Amino acid sequence: MKGRLGFYHARPPTSRMNTEVLQIHAFGAITVLDEPADRYLALKVMMMPRDTNPYGTIFGGVLLSYIDQAGAIGARHEMARNTFPAQDIVTVAMKSVEFHQSVFVGDCVSFWTELRGIGKTSITMHITVEADRDGELMKLTEADVTYVSVKTDGQTRKPVPIRGKK
Prior knowledge:
mainly beta; Thiol Ester Dehydrase, Chain A; 6-stranded antiparallel beta sheet; two-stranded antiparallel ribbon; 1 helix; 8 strands
C-alpha cells in the first residue's frame, strides 16, 4: 500500500472479530487503517499473453475461472478455520460479477477472499481481484460465489451439511 510507514498488526486468524490493522509511525503515533475484515489471499497469478482476447486485454473468462478457484480455496480455508470437516464442495452460483478495470499481460493479480455467509449446506465467498500498478493497488474485478458441500456416490452428488453431521 502506497505511503504506509511502520508495521501492521492483526488479530490472530482464529478471532471472529473484524481484523484491526494498525500503522505504527516512527514518532509513536498509531493509526487504525480502514482495511477489509478477514481477507485471505487465496491465489496470485501473473497474467500471460495466452490469456488475451482480440483486444489485447485479459479475457474475462480467464478471470472467472481464477475467481472460481480462489473462491473454492477461500471457502476451504474458512471451513478449516471453523473446524468443519474436510469435504467436497462444488460451485453452485456466481453472481454480482463486476469488471471494474481492464487486466493486462504482465499484471500480477491477487485474488482475495472474504466470507459472506454460511448456510446449512453452502458457503458464500466474496472475491476481490487486485493488481499493484506502479505502487498503486487497483481493484480490477469482484464477485460473490456460492459453493455447496456434497457427498459423491459414483455419478450422484448429494448436498450434505457443511458443518458435518448433526
